[in-house]
Amino acid sequence: MLRTVNRAGLVLDLFSETRPEWGATAVAQELGIAKSQAHELLVSLTDIGLLQRAAPGHYSLGWRIAALNSLLVSTSDVRQGAGRVMRALTARYGETVQLAVWGPSGAICVAALAGRAPVAVPAWPVGEELPGHCTGAGKVLLAGRPWSAVRDGLQREGLPRMTGRTIVTFEALVDELDSVRRQGFAHEQEEHVANTCSVAAPITDAQGDVIGAMSMSAPSERWRVAAREYTQALVAGAARSSEIVRQRVRQRSQGLAAVS
Question: What confidence tens digit (pLDDT) does each residue in 27-84 have?
C-alpha cells in the first residue's frame, strides 16, 4: 500500500509546464516500472480527480488539485499568518515579498507579492522550487533542517552555479548556514540572479522549529542603500508572522478542547 502511494506521488511529480501530459509508456520508462503498473496508477489517479484524460492515452493534472490547493491556502497557518505582514511590507517599501516552505524535495514558494517600486524584482511563481544554497529563503529553510537532511539533499541536487557569487562548495555552505542560525536571518547578494539581492528570516512554531521563510528582494542598487533597514523590517515581520501562527494554533487547540 505504501509503495503504491509513493509511486502515485512520483507520478504527480512528473507533470510540469514543459511536460503537462504523460502516458503509461513514458511514466513506466521514467519510474522504471511495468507499463501495466503505470497504466493502473494513471487510471487510479484519474478516478479520484487528481488526473484527467487528455489526448487518447495521455493524462494531465485534474481539477481536484486546484480545489485542494485552494483549501490548503485558506487553512494553512503559515500562509494565513504571513499574508497580512507581507502586504504591509510591500506597501511600505515597494519591494517584492515572498513566502517559502520546505516541501518533499526542497524549498517551495507558496505566496508572493510583486513589488510596487518603478523597478522591482519579479516575484517567484507560486509553486516554484527554489535552490536552497543561493536564495535567502532557501538558506533559512536549509538552516532549519538537520545536517543529515542538508547533506542528503546536496548529494542529490548538488550546488549548481547560478552567478559568479553563488556558493558552490559544501564547506562554504556549512559556514553560511551556521551564520544564518546565529544571526537569525539570511542575506543573498546576487547569488541567484545578477543585480538582485534579498533578505530572509524564519517563521517558527511554538517549539521554535522553522516552518517557513519570508523574504524581501530588491535590485542591487536599492539594496546597497537600504540593506540594514530592509533587514530589520523583514526580521520583525517574520517574528510577527510567527506570533500570528502560534496564536492561530492556540485558538484552534482551545476550540477543539471546548468541543471535546
Answer: 999 999 999 999 999 998 998 888 899 888 899 988 877 666 655 555 567 777 788 9
> For the domain that residue 57 is a member of, what is the CATH number?
1.10.10.10
The answer to whether residues 170 and 216 belong to one domain is: yes
- Mean pLDDT (the chain) is 87
The mean per-residue pLDDT over the stretch 252-257 comes to 64
Which 3 state secondary structure label does DSSP give 185?
Answer: coil
* Domain boundaries, position 18: 2-65
Q: What is the CA radius of gyration of the chain?
A: 20
Measured CA to CA, the distance from residue 254 to residue 260 in angstroms comes to 10
Question: Count of CB atoms within 10 A of residue 100's CB?
Answer: 30
Q: What are the C-alpha distances in Å from 229 to residues 86, 222, 236? A: 16, 11, 11
Place of cell 511536460: 19
> Half-sphere exposure (CA, 13 Å, Cβ side) for 240?
14
Examine the domain organization and report whether 210 and 87 are in the same domain. yes
Residue 260 located in a structural domain: no
Closest of 220, 219, 180, 182 to residue 200, by C-alpha: 180
Chain segment 5-33, per-residue pLDDT in tens: 778 888 888 888 788 899 999 999 999 99
- β strands within 54-190, DSSP E: 58-61, 96-102, 107-113, 129-130, 186-189
